Amino acid sequence: MRGAWNNPRLTAEVRQLIRNKGWAPPCDRAPFDAEGKLILDNFAGEDFLYMHRQMIREVNDLLAQEGEPPLDAWPAMPRPGENPDFAVPAAWTYADPNQSAADNAQMTTSLQRLKSDAYADNPIGIWETFYTSPNNLRRLSLGALGNLVEMTIHNSFHMRWASQPFGYMPSPNLEDVSAIDPKWDSVEYDYLGDIYSSHVNPFFWYLHGWADACIDKWAAANQVTDIQWTGTWTGKLEAGWSFGQPEALTAKVREEVMTGHHQSDADLRDMEEIVQRLGSCKVIRNFYDLLLQP
Fold first, then answer.
1. Are 249 and 58 spatial neighbours (Cβ–Cβ below 8 Å)?
2. Please, are residues 159 and 59 in contact by the beta-carbon 8 Å criterion?
3. Among 42, 137, 160, 248, which one has the highest count of C-beta atoms within 10 angstroms of its own C-beta?
4. What is the pLDDT of residues 271-293, one digit of tens each?
5. 3-class secondary-structure state, position 121
């Protein structure tokens, strides 16, 4: 929703539908303007960091309840040859039947570049140095940091550490959800390039632990002991979260998760309709779309 909100292809009709269903970003807050340029002063970057901090702490809370240790995180982005456990998976020839031959060729070339050792130095190494320098962090708002991290290291990471999937999931036809092949629900489908499956991949959590630590580095550089969040948008279900406090699940939401009782059928139908309408406007994006950018 955040990435689609200012897309010129999102029609006024669909935007109003989203508003009516309570899923519009507050204050029309989105990371991009209509021209695709980053907006660094509207707290969209805080939304990104806040949501991910909530996500990690919720997962750790649930792990603790199961007697499992918390998630690990990368203290720094892995360097080539540094740790075999975090080796970059090999590039492959992109062959998505949903893409044209020309697009597949371009995606293959981009994938090779993203996975190269040189890419670890430039731009990843440059980005990481910039985002962890106290001097730079003192010059950035938390929202600006979040937006920059999301659109550079975060998005590039998803394709750099992606492994070749066993197939390419087509956009679902939500008018006939029974036609969606159940093979995409297999744990073996853990493609980091697909928003549907990326969180199943263990690498996903190492990266987001690194991004979460950027919040603490920013707070330390700016001598902030209690972050006063402005960007706390996590979607329509925000009322079930602890506003302004990026902590674990509230008792209400925790109970829903642990008992398996989640959103109502009406909520799910709303989400399905919204995704269907976003798809009709061709504004649903995946991490592999990065490979089509110049």
1. yes
2. no
3. 160
4. 888 988 888 898 988 999 999 98
5. helix
